[in-house]
Design brief:
FAD/NAD(P)-binding domain; 7-stranded antiparallel β-sheet; alpha/beta; 7-stranded mixed β-sheet
Length: 532
Amino acid sequence: MKRYEVIVIGAGPAGLSAACAAAEAGLETVVFDENARPGGQLFKQIHKFFGSREHQARVRGVRIGENLLKRADELGVKTVLGATVLGVYEQKEVAVRTEGEVRSYRGDAIVIATGASENMLTFDGWTLPGVIGAGAAQTLMNMHGVRPGARVLMVGSGNVGLVVSFQLLQAGCEVPIVVDAAPRIGGYGVHASKLARAGVEFRTSHTVVKAIGAGRVEGAVIAEVDGSFAPIPGTEETIDVDTICIAVGLSPMSQLADNAGCEMEYDSAKGGYVPTLNDEGLSSVPGIYCAGDMAGIEEASSAMIQGSIAGAAIARDLGYLTPDEFGERAERWRRSLDGIRSGMFAPGMKGRTDITNTDEGYPLSASLLARGFLDGADDGIFPSMIYSGGMRPIIECTQNIPCDPCQDACPRGCIVVGEDITDLPRLDIGKKCTGCALCVGACSGQAIFLIDDSLGDGYGTVGLPYEFLPLPSPGDPGKALGRDGEVVCDASVVEVRDSKAMDKTPMLVMKVPVSALGRARFFRPAENKNYA
């Protein structure tokens, strides 16, 4: 029986981070994963991460995955793919099926990082081809280059539903409506706003009740729900779609922890049954640690930090790190974890609907929560949205989310977030914006616009983030759309500014009448219905 000092189950962000932390300290480490490719969900995530520099904010998930794999390889971590772990037994013995054979391995310590599975929603016709999970849609698009459908109904407005909806638009699909049974949009407002200005409609307090079709999805019936989330008779509406994408949450895949004899608990805030752990990820079974979504549903940034703490804790336990060395690293990681877990979307805030103001005391936009966009009444409420002439960034980030790359990106220090990464960004009016557009490319929520009224002849320009292909060319005509996706006015492209530092988030500069500068937030090329 082969013995390793550390056995990691799962090659996702938590597992790879744990393996790297252990291997960096000198432990012989192996990672088993049942998939054909390591990296877990990271390689599906083409969007930029939130957080701060230490969380790899403004870096796309796929790049984070590549960096993790490279680091694991450099540290000598052995990764075994196509390896299904069948069970974890006494004396930390692990049974693994590879290439049709079952082999047993023993570890001095084990990290279980098996991730999560998608929840499914059952309704009339839910088994028809064309009803898919959001993760499956991401796999098709971002790993295989296949469009899931031509016209997609998204069910669920959490961050997963919002992010995947935007990626569907980028792939050339139409997303006419996002429905959610909850009375307010569940994910970040900046994610919802990207969709709304591209013409996507939000229906809160609605759900899908039927998939229509003979052999495949040819339409969907949605309905309004009451306070108990039951469909209200007479509110049904038929939507013309060929795909229904489900994004209604995740459940921890904690079965191996249960099999190993770890003490388990049901915690709805963590997504279901999870092992009870201390703050280092140690379970009730000595030597067995857990990290990532299987220990509680969070963002990938949190999973990587949890994995790092667990891997370093094992190194300390096995004598490869002194308590002081571990304590120094763990303290840094815990501060980072506290930062990503703060704000109005923190794990402990899930399900709360009583928050009506930001931490700074500004009222939250009812329109943003219900319809996905800031309406005209919101202008002037947030100082970063007040335009006073000349070249100036307008920052339409109005919720306390953990993110601060905008202040790092600005070479002049025009944008300030401060030490607390959940503070709303604000503008230093004493600093002059040069229009470099680095803040536009750095903003993970695509919520920064450069406004300039100095073009002359009653015209100005709006610079906006634009992640759609093919990129328009200078002189191309189109329409300027507002925050609600409605046409504001005719527009033409002045330039498309891109650089390596912007990492594939170009700034499209469009010419519009000065009177439209406060409303124009998206560009729709002429004769291009799918914005792709």
